[in-house]
Structures are given as structure tokens and as C-alpha cells.
Amino acid sequence: MATPPGAGPAALRFAAAATWRVVRGRCVEHFPRVLEFLGSLRAAAPGLVRYRHHERLCMGLKAKVVVELILQGRPWAQVLNALQHHFPESGPVVRDPKATKQDLRKISEAQKTFCQLVKQLAETPVDLDSKLQSTWLPIQ
Questions:
Q1: CA–CA distance, 114 with 73 (Å, rounded to integer)
Q2: Predicted confidence band at 76 (pLDDT cuts at 50, 70, 90)?
Q3: How is residue 26 annotated by DSSP?
Q4: CB neighbour burial string for 92-127, b if at least 16 within 10 angstroms, e if fewer
Q5: Pick from 89, 64, 94, 93: which is nearest to 79 by CA?
Q6: Distance CA 63, CA 111 (A)
Q7: CA–CA separation, 70 and 118 (whole Å)
Q8: Half-sphere exposure of residue 112, counting CA atoms within 13 Å on the CB side?
Q9: How far apart are CA 44 and CA 38, in angstroms?
Q10: Which of 25, 62, 77, 125 could disulfide-pair with 86, CB 3.0 to 4.6 Å?
Q11: Between the CA of residue 71 and those of 1, 60, 86, 124, 131, what are the distances in Å?
Q12: What is the rounded distance in angstroms from the CA atom of residue 69 to the CA atom of residue 81?
């Protein structure tokens, strides 16, 4: 089967470079495109990155999108809608047979904790700067 036009190594390098530029520049409005690229890359080369690392990266990008909406002062309905979109209550969809129970548990716990914090903040808004600084540290 022939490679479709525009799907060769040059196109992949270009897409990877554009993705890296978005992440380095912290252009949060384009993070959904980065997530699409990461999903496509994972589907094309499933063994390239371990499941846990891929999910941690994606979770961090999704969380940043939600936090950015909060920091921009968007209505809570919009924030909670984005939260539901990026972190559905059904949990992460696992398509990797090499994902361990520990990986799944850690990812699920992190997602639940993040969602709980956002929902708590929506219910009782407080000084966002101090709350975000004291509660949400970068993902380790």
C-alpha cells in the first residue's frame, strides 16, 4: 500500500516541530491539537513511549487547558464543561495491553484528584492565585 500524499517522514517532522513549538511557547489554545497529534502518534507507533508517560503528558496538557480557563475568569459552566470533555467520568480509555494495574491506578487517582479540586473550586471560589499556588504543583 502506498503512503498517502503528505504522510511521509518530512510531514511527520514538520508536525512534530510544530507541536514542540506550541508546547515550548505554552500556547494553551493549541494544546488540543497537540493532544490530537500525540494520539495519532501513539496509534501509529504504540511502543514509542510507555503508556504511563504518554498518559501523564496528555493529562498535564489537558489540566493546563482547564486551569487556563479558570485563570482567564471564564464562567464556571464553561470550565466544568471543559473538565468533563477532557476528563470524562468513565475514566481513561485504555488501549495499551502493556499498561500495568499500577499505571492505571496512578493515572485514575491523579485524574480523580484533579477533577475533585476543580469541582471544589467551582463550588466555593476563593482567591485563585493563592489556591493554585498552594494546591496545584506541577505533575511529578
A1: 18
A2: very high
A3: T
A4: beeebeebeeebbeebeebbeebbebbeebeeeeee
A5: 64
A6: 9
A7: 9
A8: 8
A9: 10
A10: 62
A11: 48, 16, 17, 15, 11
A12: 11
Q: Tell me the mean pLDDT in the region 39-50.
A: 86
> What are 18's three cell numbers?
510544530
Grid coordinates belonging to 87:
476528563
What are the E-state strand segments in 1-140? none
Given a cut of 50, whether residue 1 has pLDDT beyond it is no
For residue 140, the model assigns a pLDDT of 44
Q: Supply the Cα-derived Rg of the chain in whole angstroms.
A: 17
Reported as half-sphere exposure (CB side, CA atoms, 13 A), residue 91 has a value of: 10
